[in-house]
Amino acid sequence: MKISEIATLLNAELYTVNHDTMTDIKSACSADLMSDVMAFSKENALLLTGLINPQVIRTAEMMDMKAIIFVRGKKPQEAMIELAEEKRIALMSTHYPLFEASGRLYQSGIRGHGF
Amino acid sequence: MGQMIIRDFDIPANDFSVAGEASSTVRKLLSQLGVAPDRIKRTAIAMYEAEINAVIHGRGGKAHVEISGDKIIIEISDEGPGIEDLELAMQEGYSTATDSIREMGFGAGMGLPNIKKHADELVIKSEKDKGTVVTITVNF
Predict the structure, then answer these.
(1) In what order do the strands lie in the sheet containing B61-67?
(2) What is the fold of A3-107?
């Protein structure tokens, strides 16, 4: 799925413009613990999380992830948006909780790699 | 890549907004040098974990990086409290992190084991009240 399609599916607000609009996201990882994302996640292009801080973007960068969705209506601060723009990572915010956002993506064919 | 490339970075204490900047710079550099993506990812994860550790536990520190044709050696040093029981620290799930660190999404006790998993070689030298030096080697 393209980033714009994911945003539509999850009724999400998209905060960045400098990301790869053509990238085809096939897999995702949902976690609030960045330690676990780094220890267990494998080739996942999308991160769903309820954690909001700059280290979420750093973690996604190190893991070669293309997009981050903040769940439960959490919104990133300006500094985080700037950092994400610089790293070409898409930032989105959805009102769905983590379980439901993950479920909707799974139903649309997104799978998880890792663990 | 004939010549060795050397880079040095400061890792500021307790500044979570810039934690990871050194790892990010090294990641970018390796990409420009044409290193294989899976090797870059291993390096980035291992270095980032060590950098976060220096911020969380070591009151900040320094990173010294040497890149040659066939490998990267990363030395992250701090003058923090040191690791009292290294064997215990290497166990998955063991952590001395405070609640404020856990609120940042870290402190799950996965850092050192995860560095070990991604590095081809890991050497940790630590002395109580003197500090810790973590040396990570990733072969290309």
Answers:
(1) B5-11, B61-67, B71-78, B131-139, B121-127
(2) 3.40.1390
CA of B117 vs chain A CAs: smallest distance (Å) = 9
> For residues A68 and A89, what is the distance between their CA atoms, to the nearest angstrom?
7
- Please report the ipTM that was assigned to this predicted complex: 0.87
Pairing of strands B61-67, B5-11: antiparallel
pTM of the predicted structure, to 2 decimals: 0.92
Residues A82-103: tens digit of each pLDDT? 999 999 999 999 999 999 999 9
Nearest chain A Cα distance for residue B24, angstroms: 7
CA distances from A13 to A36, A68, B42 (A): 26, 12, 32
We report the CATH number of the domain holding residue B73 as 3.30.565.10
Q: How many domains does chain B have?
A: 1
**In chain B, how long is the greatest CA-to-CA distance?**
46
Q: State the residue range of the domain holding B77.
A: 5-139
Give the pairing type, strands A67-70 and A46-49: parallel
Indicate the residue of B27, B41, B108 with minimum beta-carbon distance to A35: B108
Asked if A55 and B52 come within 8 Å (Cβ–Cβ), the reply is yes
